[in-house]
Specification:
5-stranded mixed β-sheet, about 280 residues, 6-stranded mixed β-sheet
């Protein structure tokens, strides 16, 4: 995990230039709405607003000041008070407001791995980044469900090789994980070891069995069920290819051949390096 955080710091350090503004899209989920904020920042972060009849819940608030201001202004335009702020995988601009986290994530966020990563981000991005949150943390046990703004939030364990945060099923219809499923080669920050392949396959299967129709992530945004099916099949192919490839170079070529023109191809060498590391 520490090596993964070091890699993350190296990645963002290469692109510490000014952040682009984000964009919003809205999904009507019946009795509630899901607002998806694409930050367009270097880490491809996404933030969310769950809008109930009388109030809203924010999730994964943005890390950078420009994005945070844009997100907060959009939330204010709903004309509804914030009933809760959920910080799952990403600490962001919740300032001194109380936050809800998954069981164990509060302590982990202050520990040497995650806390060290946030301190590194602060050094890299300086004044462009929001101040670290100082609000009271309440934790939701794994296996628990909370009803907020008339919408249920069910907390379950995320991928076994990831942070001790949660996959959250929202209103029985939207499934939040750390990385949104995408029809693309994954980053080496997501699949950082052979064990992570199995962990992500198991998580993808849980997502498919959740009954959700929309699949969202702290990185990426929103996707439909076909993206989850693609992810499951892709990871199976990755596992098979890794077992049959004698070298990282052979693995890269085999994955290119299996998925010609698939986005993210430029990241395959780093992915191979992580998978072949002993």
């Amino acid at each position: 995990m520490r090596k993964l955080m070091t890699a993350a710091l190296g990645l963002v350090a290469m692109a510490a230039a000014a952040q682009e503004k984000g964009r919003m899209e809205v999904h009507d989920m019946g009795s509630w709405k899901l607002h998806v904020y694409y930050s367009n920042d270097v880490m491809n972060d996404a933030s969310y607003i769950v809008e109930g009849r009388d109030s809203i819940v924010t999730m994964e608030q943005p890390l950078f000041k420009d994005n945070a201001a844009e997100f907060d202004a959009y939330a204010a335009k709903t004309g509804k008070p914030v009933a809760a702020r959920i910080t799952d995988y990403h600490m962001g601009g919740t300032a001194d407001h109380d936050v809800l986290m998954a069981e164990g994530m509060g302590a982990f966020s202050k520990g040497p791995v995650y806390g060290g990563m946030m301190q590194g981000f602060a050094k890299t991005f300086g004044d462009a980044m929001v101040s670290l949150p100082t609000g009271k943390v309440t934790e939701a046990p794994f296996g628990s469900t909370r009803a907020i703004v008339g919408v249920t939030f069910s907390f379950s364990h995320g991928a076994a090789t990831d942070f001790p945060a949660a996959s959250i099923l929202i209103g029985g219809k939207a499934y939040l994980t750390h990385w949104a499923p995408a029809k693309a080669h994954p980053s080496h920050l997501q699949i950082s070891s052979p064990q992570a392949i199995d962990a992500e396959i198991a998580e993808a299967k849980r997502a498919q069995e959740s009954g959700a129709t929309l699949f969202i992530g702290s990185h990426g945004g929103a996707a439909k069920a076909d993206a989850v099916a693609f992810k499951t099949a892709y990871l199976g192919k990755m596992k098979e290819t890794l077992a049959s490839s004698p070298t990282p170079e052979a693995f890269v070529e085999a994955m290119k051949s299996a998925y010609p023109g698939l986005p993210g191809e430029e990241g395959l060498p780093e992915l191979a390096k992580a998978l072949f590391k002993k």
